[in-house]
Design brief:
By secondary structure, this protein is mostly helical. It is 54% helix and 3% strand. The protein is globular.
């Protein structure tokens, strides 16, 4: 599903570049190697920015080996990570004021500059086309054990349509209604942000200018600007962002201290993946993940917290949560993914009253879902997927 969604977006890019007089070239190979090869006759190479380990390595290799100037442009966040903070922040409260102070310097939408002269003579026999995305994915030999989602398409046009739907139908209720897992007033924009198919700056401006109440606008900006860019801060300043060892010392210590606590039923990765637990709420959430590639944020928290209770070793629980997260969510393998899974285990949080299994790490229980939502209605819906 990840390959299909990404390539649907790339097909949009190809069409947009061609319509503006540019030449789009799709090549197969190691990204920095291909870019360096194509840069041999270039005056400058412009790349976007990436914060995960492999993305930084690609850009570093390109900058080192390219025969011309390499410029990197920030488009993945509103405020470049170093401009917001020069260290790993401990929580949203420690980065919030910094982001709000810095945002005005970076929140101007750039003007669209037309291409003065259309591209000529740049076609090459190595260029590939994206006429049939499914056939192209098959040709690449991608692992399609997690199938594409027929009801959800990638690309800039679909991202813009999703944003428009959110602004007109859900933003007004977002402030009070975003936590409801049944009547969802959420944006569904995270996959498009993850694959770079819509700009966070574009979303920020659209929300600010929308005809909606200020409370809902502020709540959305808190999630997209503060929480999302806190996640980028985490992966940028924490070399081991995908490891249990990246967690705060207090969280590691308390989870290790309670590692031998009785958990009742415990489950293997396969049992979890197949929704084979004794909790119908958790099973329904896992089913929605498998089928749709999405899960409401409140359910993501519940889903991940319960894995701590289902797996005896907290280090193994961390790895399993990250594995399932990145395998099934369309917005998986993102800075948010690594920060959110780490949050399940105490990152960007504080210590809570100590209890069995979780120690001082925040917990979530089935009783909380029953108290806050019509959880049985959700289970019936998920089981029909």
């Amino acid at each position: 599903r990840h390959y299909t969604f990404m390539l649907q977006g790339l097909k949009d890019v190809a069409s947009e570049i061609s319509s503006r007089g540019g030449h789009f070239a799709l090549r197969l190979g190691n990204p920095p190697d291909v870019a360096c090869q194509e840069a041999k006759d270039a005056a400058v190479v412009v790349t976007d920015r990436g914060y995960l380990r492999h993305l930084r390595e690609w850009r570093s290799a390109l900058a080192q080996d390219a025969p011309c100037l390499v410029e990197m442009v920030e488009g993945d966040v509103v405020v470049p990570v170093e401009a917001a903070s020069d260290k790993k922040e401990t929580a949203a409260r420690t980065i919030r004021k910094k982001l709000h102070r810095a945002v005005s310097e970076f929140d101007t939408l750039p003007a669209t500059t037309p291409i003065a002269k259309a591209a000529r003579g740049l076609k090459d026999d190595k260029d590939r086309t994206l006429g049939d995305v499914s056939a192209f994915v098959d040709e690449l030999g991608c692992d399609m054990s997690v199938g594409a989602i027929d009801t959800l398409k990638g690309g800039q046009q679909q991202a813009e349509a999703t944003l428009k739907t959110f602004l007109t139908k859900s933003l007004d209720a977002y402030g009070d209604g975003r936590a409801d897992i049944v009547n969802r007033n959420v944006s569904h924009l995270s996959p498009y942000l993850h694959f770079g198919q819509i700009s966070p700056l574009r979303i920020l401006h659209s929300v600010r200018n929308a005809k909606s109440n200020d409370g809902s606008k502020d709540a959305f900006i808190e999630e997209m600007l503060i929480r999302r860019e806190l996640a980028v801060n985490f992966v940028h300043y924490e070399p081991d962002y995908d490891q249990f060892s990246a967690l705060p010392g207090w969280a590691q210590d308390t989870l290790k201290h309670h590692a031998k606590d009785d958990r009742g039923e415990t489950y293997s990765l396969k049992q979890l993946e197949d929704s084979k637990t004794d909790d119908p709420y958790w099973n329904a959430a896992m089913r929605e993940m498998r089928v749709t590639g999405y899960l409401h944020n409140h359910l993501r928290m519940y889903w991940g917290k319960r894995i701590i209770a289902y797996v005896q070793d907290p280090k193994r629980a961390f790895k399993m949560a990250l594995t399932l997260n990145n395998k099934y969510f369309l917005d998986g393998r993102d800075a948010n993914s690594f920060a959110n899974v780490a949050w399940l285990f105490g990152q960007h949080d504080r210590g809570w009253p100590e209890r069995d299994v979780f120690g001082k790490v925040r917990t979530m229980m089935p009783s909380g879902l029953k108290r806050k939502f019509d959880i049985d209605a959700y289970v019936k819906w998920a089981n029909r997927l």
